[in-house]
Amino acid sequence: MWRKVTAICLAVSMMVLTCACGKSGTVTYKGETDTNPDKGLEVMGDHVTYDPNHLVNDGDPIELDWWLWDAPDLFGSIAEEYEKIHPNVTIHIINNPWDGFWTKLPLALQKGEDGPTLFNVHNSYQHLLLNYMEPYDIDIQDLEEDFFTAKSHEIDGKIYYMDFGIMTGAIYYNKDMWAAAGLTEEDIPKTWDEFREVAKKLTIMEDGKMVQAGFNFNGDFENLMQGVPYQYGDTIFDETGTVPRLTQEGQIETAQMFLDFYEKDHVGDKDFGTDAAQSFGQGQSAMVYRWGHFYGYMETNYPDINYGTFEIPTATEDPFAYDRYNGESTPGINKNATPEQKEVAQDFIRFYLANQEKQKELCMNYSLFPSNNALRDDKDLLKNPAIQAVSEHIDNYIWPGAMPATLGDNLKIACQDMMYNNTPVEEALQNAEDIVKVDLSNQEFVASENLYYRYSEHQ
């Protein structure tokens, strides 16, 4: 079976229909009547199981749309596998560009049968989508048994979407520079103090000018500031999950530590390029902090760089959490779709979650640590350096919740003020906190930090 994938793009203020998979045309493919409930196929999954041996929609032909913004071939292959089991079902993959996706999707979800029945979710837009979402018709205990991040997505005893994999940060290091500095794997630092000494050895100055940065965090300071303070036991939000706290001791210490890397240790420089990722790829920086998608960036842009990864160093021997993470989400179901469409969508979601091979493909594609416990020790996944780096302590990473854009935006401004305008740390963080407080007072945001298993230990 082959499928039509529709990509909706805005070009010169006209809607143009294109095909993201290289196929063309606008033909609609209708399913055939299915009269065979016993497919002779094995049941999939562990706790969340999928038994293919049944009819959906009583075997009558039915169509539904699945909206997404990326990887239509990969997601389309999941739909194709489902259609092979249930030939009466046709799932149209509608690939919309990210720009405009979150404007068009809420409007389309109001159209009932004519809107998308399934749609990919990004948790940062949960506030826009939740009112249009149907909860999964799957036992929550089964979801939590199979997916270690499922509980963090429970809302009033229901789950509307969850993670198929998670991404977080790690240190990427240039192995050739490492060897030239006389370093070995035995020198991989576990603490920030050890990291500082390694960075010094990797820094090269010529005639008073930096030609190789030992550590470059230009463009990533604000990302570090959203994760490293957890190592001290500080959470980003107060006990209610609604009020930001950006001026705690751990956050101040974190900011000062990174500023000292440049200003006192001189292992990098704020003027040594604005993009640490590009600097690393061009062989100018020995170490950078990046999230898992950096693996794909390097494969695409700098495949000849010989690099490795290691877990982010910590401020204490037993950190409250190593860093924050974010998840790539499973599809949502449109509550305004017809009952027949929702029945098929619920069946498809169960198939999606029980299909460990397809989840593995998704995690390999996006360099994600799998949320499905059955894949935690998968050898193929652990060959990916982004996944391998965080695998040992993955349970000690925290999801703050669907982070509001205002927090990241204002932390970025605070970091720029500290680095380029010499604004004192406390003042810059206080300015950010004040603005975020005002912004969040107009939103129904509640953090998920209290779902972290060590939350009661935080200061």
Give an overview in words.
The chain has 459 residues and is an alpha+beta fold. The protein is 33% helix and 15% strand. It has 16 helices and 15 strands. The strands form 4 sheets. Strands 2-1-4-3-5-14 form a 6-stranded mixed sheet. Strands 8, 11, 12, 13 and 15 form a 5-stranded antiparallel sheet that branches. Helix 1 links the parallel strand 3 and strand 4. Helix 15 packs antiparallel against helix 16. The radius of gyration is 24 Å and the shape is globular. 43% of the residues are buried.
Keywords:
alpha+beta; 459 residues; 6-stranded mixed beta sheet; single chain; 15 strands
Rg over C-alpha atoms, rounded to the nearest angstrom? 24 Å
Order of strands side by side in the largest beta sheet? 2-1-4-3-5-14
Please count the beta strands (DSSP E, at least 2 residues each).
15
**SS-based class:** alpha+beta
Q: Bin the strand percentage.
A: 15-25%
Largest sheet: 6 strands, mixed
Q: Unreliable segments (pLDDT under 50, ≥5 consecutive)? A: 6-29
Distance between the termini: 56 Å
- How does the overall form come out from the CA principal axes? globular
Mean pLDDT: 92
What helical percentage do the residues reach? 25-40%
- Number of helical segments? 16
